[in-house]
Design goal:
The protein is mostly helical. It is built from eleven helices and four strands; from the N terminus they run H-H-H-H-H-H-E-E-H-H-H-H-H-E-E. The protein is globular, with a radius of gyration of 26 Å. This is G protein-coupled receptor 45.
């Protein structure tokens, strides 16, 4: 049987409980089901690939913003900070999880277990905070028509987000929360406890890391989608009335109804769509981990079930996928990012053809196409 107690006694100090951890706690309980060896090897290899992609892809984002002053807008500074948090997550957390998945034992000591748990939540909270700031900024611009975020304010908010994330994640490293050395998970996870203080902290951590940001971002994006839809309908209706007015003045009532206008709306929706995709990726990667953590803290049967190790491995792997997801989306959606990737690549690796730019002319939000041979602004 493992040395762990089923809960951390509320009257027991963190130091006393931490000393109780010994080498035997790092060994896997034979009653727990683990992944087959070939699957563990495959997952470890995939995680190494994720580390490489997450580091290189996010490093390109940071280099673009650092080397090109013209790219240091408020939104780009936020995206660079998001990329930096993903780099830190890829370097300081993912390698140890990959090794533990492969060996099925934690070989880095109990002290570093708590440090790794703190770093995990620290970088995750920072990434979530940046996504939340970006979402609120898009909401203010598109819905409220208030563009208040400049580079100086963005820098202040970045500093505040780092400080806030550190304060929320720090209790796990000093023992204010029950974090178990992974005999039943490939890295330190929130463990089952009946102590009200520990449960309260776990709820606060998960609410801060997922539920509150998810709710605010979901509300913001629903409002943005509704605003974009209403504006699109208004522009189309206005263009149709302009066309009919011109036909009436010319006395051409027998002609067919003019063609619907051809408005290039990508100037207005493409950047928002990219942020929306990041939000969807965040939700899909983090919802399973959030549910898993809550059940670990509150459900004794789930935490001590034979399938807990397999479940924890899968949800942790999925949560790390987010750090790889962002640069893939940038490469897919942002032309400048693709061009910068080609610039940073050695010439011997530039085997892909240059991506052609857009040929369709972009228009201002106040410009529409009317039913004539020429384009005019209204």
């Amino acid at each position: 049987m493992p040395v762990f107690c089923t809960m951390m006694a509320c009257n027991q100090t963190p130091a006393d409980f931490f000393v109780a951890l010994n080498v035997s706690t790092w060994l896997r309980d034979p009653s727990y089901t683990v992944l087959p060896t070939p699957l563990r090897i495959l997952l470890a290899i995939i995680m190494l690939f994720m580390i490489a992609v997450g580091f290189l892809g996010n490093a390109v984002v940071c280099l673009i913003v650092y080397q090109k002053p013209a790219m240091r807008s408020a939104i780009n500074l936020l995206l660079a900070t998001l990329a930096f948090s993903d780099i830190m997550l890829s370097l300081f957390c993912m390698p140890f999880t990959a090794i533990t998945i492969l060996t099925v034992s934690w070989n880095f000591g109990a002290r570093f277990c708590r440090i790794s748990a703190m770093l995990y939540w620290f970088f995750v909270l920072e990434g979530v905070s940046i996504l939340l700031i970006i979402s609120v900024d898009r909401f203010l611009i598109i819905v409220q028509r208030q563009d208040k975020l400049n580079p100086q304010r963005a820098k202040v908010m970045i500093v505040v987000s780092w400080a806030f994330s550190f304060c929320i994640s720090f209790p796990s490293v000093v023992g204010w929360m029950f974090v178990e050395v992974p005999s039943r998970a490939p890295q330190c996870v929130l463990g089952y406890t009946e102590c009200p203080a520990d449960r309260a902290y776990a709820v606060m951590l998960l609410v801060t890391a997922f539920f509150v940001p998810f709710s605010i971002m979901l509300y913001s994006y629903l409002c943005i989608l509704n605003t974009v839809r209403r504006n699109t309908v208004r522009i189309h209706n206005h263009a149709e009335s302009v066309c009919l007015s011109q036909v009436s003045k010319l006395g051409l009532t027998g002609l067919q109804k003019p063609h619907q206008m051809n408005v290039d709306m990508s100037f207005k929706t493409r950047a928002f769509t990219t942020i929306l995709i990041l939000f969807v990726g965040f939700s899909l990667c983090w919802l399973p981990h959030t549910v898993f953590s809550l059940m670990s803290v509150f459900s004794r049967n789930f935490y001590y079930s034979p399938s807990f190790y397999i479940t924890s491995t899968c949800v942790l792997w999925l949560s790390y996928l987010k750090s790889v997801f962002n640069p893939v989306v940038y490469c897919w959606r942002i032309k400048k990012f693709r061009e910068a990737c080609l610039e940073f690549m050695p010439k011997t690796f530039k085997i892909f053809p240059k991506v052609p730019g857009r040929t369709k002319r972009r228009i201002r939000p106040s410009t529409i196409y009317v039913c004539s041979e020429h384009q005019s602004a209204v």
